[in-house]
Amino acid sequence: MASLARQGSVKVVESGIVVAPTRDRALLRAFLERDRLRAAYAICDLDAREFGRTRWGVATRAGETIAVVLEYTGLTPQPLFVMGEAAGISEVLRQVIRPRLAYLAADAEHLPAIEQVYRIDPGPPMLRMWVDRTSFRPYSGVAMRLLPVEIGDLNRLYGYGFTSWLPAASISSGVYYGIRDGGRLVAAAGTHVISPEARLAAVGNVMTHPDYRARGFAKLTTSAVTQELLRTCDEVVLNVRSDNPAAIAAYTALGYREHNRFEERLSRRRNSAWDSIVNALRRALVGRQPS
């Protein structure tokens, strides 16, 4: 608790839980490494390149860390990762990490406690899958490493399924592979984050043009990215919706295995101005219903 106190804003809750913001990377890493694959994104965010974009809150009891909450800033909605005891998580969200709108990643068992602070949209569970050098099975075919100058082509492809565009730095700092047909980029896969310190990476941004699906292009580009990452990383992870059996089968064929299931949901803070507006509108609409 003394190390947290030096960082300010320590609060003691009636249950004996102490919550505080922290920038103590050693403390955070020690807790997150208890389940390295579940916390893979958060561990990668401890690297110097990403750490400045993050806010962290911790909960302790009797001097032992029981929960960690990560808010990745600069994006809307803010990515929000939680791990640990539900009681500690909810107290950190009440008092330390308080985004109005967040894209929450949490275990299903955490949701009842988090719902005291946030309204959580429904959605299917997500699978965290992972692979290492011993299980990886590369897919035969040719995919080309993409360069930063190809960011325009990449974003045009992503326009078929993603709402946000990537900067050229995403390619230069990550690993992206694509497939072209007649010069047109028709499939690509890349990375969300890479940690040289932890030797860990997350694959993402997998997209195939609608006219070129069911040809194995997603498997081929994901294979190329994974193979490149495994040259320097010990494990590679990815997320996939549990209601997407085709994607799960493709990743399984590459040697990816399920590690855990979790909830990835859009969440809105209760008692915010927006929440008050929505509730007022609901009351007004209910009042207009015929009796």
- The low-confidence parts are none
CATH class of the largest domain: Alpha Beta
Number of strands: 14
Total domains: 2
Distance between the termini: 58 Å
Morphology: elongated
CATH superfamily of the largest domain: Gcn5-related N-acetyltransferase (GNAT)
Number of helices: 11
Mean pLDDT: 91
Strand content: 25-35%
- Helix and strand composition category: alpha+beta
How would you describe this protein?
Strands 1, 2, 3, 4, 5, 6, 7, 8, 9, 10, 11, 12, 13 and 14 form a 14-stranded mixed beta sheet that branches. Helices cover 30% and strands 32% of the residues. The protein has two domains: 2-120, Aminopeptidase (3-Layer(aba) Sandwich), CATH 3.40.630; 129-261, Aminopeptidase, CATH 3.40.630.30. It is built from eleven helices and 14 strands.
Task: Give keywords.
291 residues; alpha+beta; Aminopeptidase; 2 domains; 14-stranded mixed β-sheet; 30% helix; elongated
